[in-house]
Amino acid sequence: MLRIIDAGTGEVVEAAPARRGLTRVEAHAPGLDPTALRVLLVADLLVRALELGGTPVWGLLRAERPQTELRAAADTLGIRPLEDRAQAGPGLGERQVLHVIAEGAAAPDGVRVGVAAVEPARPAHAPGEETQALLGGDPAVLRLALLARPRREPVRLDAEALAEAGRTLGRWRRAVAGWAREPSRPVPEEVRGRLRAAWEDDLDVPGVLRVLRRVENEPELPDGARFETYVYADRLLGLDLARDLGVLT
To answer: Gene3D superfamilies this protein is in (predicted)?
Structure first.
């Protein structure tokens, strides 16, 4: 069961208190900047985690400015589309509402999922300038750099952080492509349990990444099981870890 710390009360709540009951995930992104993208990314992770647990989810975007550029940036980052809150109409009888907000921002009643700021690596001279610069490389590298820090801690996307994410992503994609050549093996239940325990504990994505690093280096684990583990975890992470299948010679 996914549990979230409510930023409004500090209490731990169940993200889906009613089994099979609809949960609404509403992302609040007032502008186009890296922090707004991080808010949308956390909303995307929430939707993915709830779906993996069998919970029906309704994802919405509440934005105060024209959404075209914001949605294009989100799509580039691999964030699945969210419905426009202004056009969505009344609720659909959801049993839980999760408002994903930047820390310190106001939100309507409901559980508040706080997201810390992305600290600028360099001054931006125009709205959206830093966001477009960050999206100029491999978007999955930016996504991994954002995932590597707990969502309630600020993250600084400097050259070192992006380079480290790039090295990790490249190594994992090459490894997954190599492991895919071996006979498939199921994800070990102990590993599956550790992955789920991490993301169900206040969406601890860095904990998920730590599990993958351990799986990468576990000498007794068959390569086919490593492959299935990474593919399974990528249903949450959205890093396209199997992108290079068939590319290696």
So the answer is: Anticodon-binding domain of a subclass of class I aminoacyl-tRNA synthetases
Q: Which helix (H) or strand (E) holds 96?
A: strand 96-102
| 119: its two tokens | 């600290």
End-to-end CA distance of the chain: 42
Residue 235: CB partners within 8 Å, gap ≥ 6? Answer: 48, 52
What number of helices (H) and strands (E) belong to the chain?
Answer: 8, 9
| Distance between CA atoms of residues 24 and 247, nearest Å | 39
Give, for all 249 residues of the chain, the pLDDT tens digit. Answer: 899 999 989 999 999 887 778 999 999 998 888 999 999 999 999 999 999 999 999 999 998 766 888 899 999 999 999 998 777 666 667 788 999 999 988 878 889 999 999 987 666 555 566 676 677 678 999 999 999 999 999 999 888 999 999 999 999 999 999 999 999 999 999 999 999 999 999 999 999 999 999 999 999 999 999 999 999 999 999 999 999 987 654
